[in-house]
Specification:
This protein is α/β, with parallel strands linked by helices. The protein contains 18 helices and 22 strands. The structure holds glutamine.
């Protein structure tokens, strides 16, 4: 079968959930046995989101091959269980960089280099790149931004050309918003009509409309939209707000989105998607009676997208443990000795978040000391793991000024230090230790038991590491280094074996947790939190 290309565009407003719609469609096609991948084309000039502040762009996701990517790639993996790579996320900056590199090499043979055709050709080349590998039946391309933005014009021009070239092997799904005007008690279709017009002016006729709405859109209204927008009535699908993003694939299937896509791209519709494992997950989610309280100590708590993969990984693990997740965000900058007890007392487990820089770090130490002394299940991730090491050095080893050289270059006890390979690097973009690396786990450790094996591979994003010169002192005092990289001996996992569950990972296990393949270490953490919850409950009786 020819590779099929689906383009997903958005209109009216941003944040409608193009990533979730793309992921849901991919989830259904995958469940029909098709080979699917999703890619995101972002119109901003940064080469990748790695240098962006979480306030600008939410979490920075990391692929196995070490690309710092848009957080939508996290949704793509969580919904499809298919790994993404650097080819799955392309920005305007990367497009221009390669065109300018080619120009400098003289590849354009004296021609004037222009947006059309040179930039658009480069976009088209990248859209088709994964398709040309022969590994996929469907390539879903999400175009970032909203129709009407100046910066997405070259991408939409490339989509126009590709639709023309690819014919039945491509289609466009346009996501819009149907607002409910409370004063008039009415849903309004005009913004959708305008946004489709804007797309048509660029030469793109959407084949399918997905209407994001808070209220049920009556059939009559969907028919009217179809009529005004040159779309078949059954290809106007509504995406009504639901209590979990993981229900969106089911809602799309109820309206036959997967069948419509197959039919419109010339593929025979046979049978139904195999959604049984997905439905089991939803069933567990809907039927969980008891709650598990997890505190997440970090500095970006007002912005929950900053910890997207962590909250999803916790949610996967809690759901499989038949628990409702009550995730409480605790601002590390505001946490003090005076209120730590009150803020953490009701938690069944605590996560110490990843991050960069000094701000909020003292609150993490306060939380860690409290968790260690009261023996609460505690999970430190990346900077969170480094904070575990520093807190232990200060309060158990008595190295009161111990620190990471990230926070204090003159610390007398640099228990966390810049990695050797980082010392000659000055550029910020794409230069951390990124992507999946191997890790050997100590037999019998909590981490090894969590994974059920001793050789794992997880993703990274850091410049600093545990300073092995201190390793013996930590181990003698009860902090065990139970995971290390086999090639470099970089410490990947520390734990306090004497505690219920006190584990820190230099890597980010949250990136690889998916609905159908939840992260084993998150599951182990949640299991420990569930046990602790039961214990607390029994002793209060
Ligand atoms: N700032 C720390 C480092 O670079 C941790 C990074 C992180 O938490 N992702 O090593």
């Amino acid at each position: 079968m020819d590779t099929k290309y689906i383009f997903v565009t958005g209109g009216v407003v941003s944040s409608l959930g193009k990533g979730i719609i793309s992921s849901s469609l991919a989830c259904l096609l995958k469940a029909r046995g098709l080979r699917v991948t999703i890619q995101k084309f972002d119109p901003y000039i940064n080469i990748d989101p790695g240098t962006l502040n979480p306030y600008e762009h939410g979490e920075c996701y990391v692929t196995e091959d070490g690309h710092e990517a848009d957080l939508d790639l996290g949704h793509y993996e969580r919904f499809t269980n298919v790994r993404t790579s650097r080819a799955n996320n392309v920005t305007t900056g990367r497009i221009y960089q390669s065109v300018i590199d080619k120009e400098r090499r003289g590849d354009y043979l004296g021609k004037t280099v222009q947006i059309v055709p040179h930039i658009t050709d480069e976009i088209k080349r990248r859209v088709k790149y994964l398709g040309n590998t022969g590994n996929y039946d469907y390539i879903i391309t999400e175009i970032g931004g909203t129709v009407g933005d100046i910066e997405s014009l070259p991408f939409l021009e490339a989509v126009r050309q590709l639709r023309w070239e690819l014919g039945i092997n491509s289609l466009c799904v346009h996501l819009t918003y149907v607002p409910y005007i409370a004063a008039a008690k009415e849903l309004k279709t005009k913004p959708t009509q305008h946004s489709v017009k804007a797309l048509q002016e660029l030469g793109i006729q959407p084949d399918i409309l997905v209407l994001r709405t808070e209220k049920e859109i009556p059939l009559e209204m969907r028919r009217k939209i179809a009529l005004f927008c040159n779309v078949e009535p059954d290809s106007v699908v509504q995406s009504i707000d639901v209590n979990s993003i993981y229900k969106v694939p089911l809602m799309m299937h109820d309206q036959h989105l997967d069948e419509i896509v197959l039919r419109k791209t010339g593929v025979a519709v046979e049978g139904e998607p195999e959604m049984a494992p997905w439905l089991d997950f939803i069933h567990k989610m809907d039927n969980a009676k008891e709650t598990i309280n997890i505190g997440l100590v970090g500095k970006y708590v007002e912005l929950q997208d900053a910890y997207k993969s962590i909250s999803e990984a916790l949610f996967h693990a809690a759901t499989y443990a038949d628990r409702k997740l009550n995730l409480v965000y605790i601002h590390s900058e505001k946490l003090t000795e005076a209120d730590v007890d009150e803020r953490l007392r009701d938690m069944d487990g605590v996560i110490i978040a990843p991050g960069f820089g000094q701000r909020g770090i003292e609150g993490k130490f306060i939380a860690l000391r409290w968790c260690r002394e009261y023996d609460i299940p505690t999970f430190g991730i990346c900077l969170g793991m480094q904070c575990m090491v520093i807190e232990f050095a200060r309060n158990v080893l008595g190295l009161h000024e111990a620190n990471s050289t990230e926070m204090n270059t003159h610390t007398p006890d640099n228990v966390i230090d810049l990695m050797e390979e980082q010392k000659s690097i000055s550029a910020m973009g794409g230069t951390m230790r990124l992507g999946a690396y191997d890790c050997d786990l100590l037999p019998g450790s909590k981490a090894a038991m969590a994974y059920g094996k001793e050789h794992i591979s997880e993703r990274h994003r850091h410049r600093f590491e545990f300073n092995n010169a201190y390793r013996d002192r930590f181990e003698a005092a009860g902090m065990a280094c139970v995971g290390e990289n086999p090639a470099t001996h970089l410490v990947e996992v520390v734990e306090l074996p004497a505690k219920r569950w006190f584990v820190g990972t230099q890597y980010h296990p949250e990136y690889s947790s998916t609905v159908l393949s939840p992260s084993p270490i998150f599951q182990s953490f949640i299991k420990a939190a569930v046990e602790y919850h039961k214990e607390k409950h029994n002793s209060n009786k």
